[in-house]
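[audit] Reproducing an earlier prediction to check determinism. Same input, same settings, fresh worker. If the C-alpha cells differ from the archived copy the diff job will pick it up downstream; this log only records the rerun itself.
[audit] input (160 residues):
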Amino acid sequence: MLEFDDIVTITADFFTSDEVKGAVASVQNYIDFRIPTYKTADKDKKTSAELLKIVLNPEIKLPTYVAVDIARLPPVDVEHLNLSALQKELMLLRSEVRSIGSLRVELDEVKSQLKAVQAQQPTVALGGTHMYPLGKDSQEEGFTTVQGKKFSGLQLPIVP
C-alpha cells in the first residue's frame, strides 16, 4: 500500500515527460473533461497527481492498463510502503476468516438440529394408496375422496 504523494513522486521521478504526456493522451480518450497542462518546473509531478486522481476516482470508468515491459515499472522501496495500512487490511482479512469459521459451526449446529427434528417426526407411509388431484367430483362439503374413501380436512390414510 503506497501513499498518494509517494506514488506521485515515484512516477514523476521515474517516467519521462513524453511518457507522462502519453499517459495523459491515453486517459483523455475516456474522460469528458480536459486534464490541465502545467508549465512550471514540477509539471510532471502535478500532471501525475491529476492522472492519479482520475485513476482513483470510482465514477470514472477506465480500461485496465498492464505493463508490457516490466522493466519499465518504477522500483518501490520499502520506505514507501504504508505497513500500518497493510496490517489493518490483514487484520480485517483475519476477522473475515474467523467469522466464516463461526458461520460453519452455526451451520453444523443447524444441520444437527434439523436431523434431530426429522428423527422425531413420524414417518407416513401411504403404501399402495394413490393421491388424486382434487376436482369438482372429489370434493364434497369439506371432504376429500381418495380411492372411494372420504377424508375431512388434511387427514390422510396412514398405512402401517
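[audit] rerun output stored. Observation attached for the diff report: Residues 4-80 form one domain.
[audit] end
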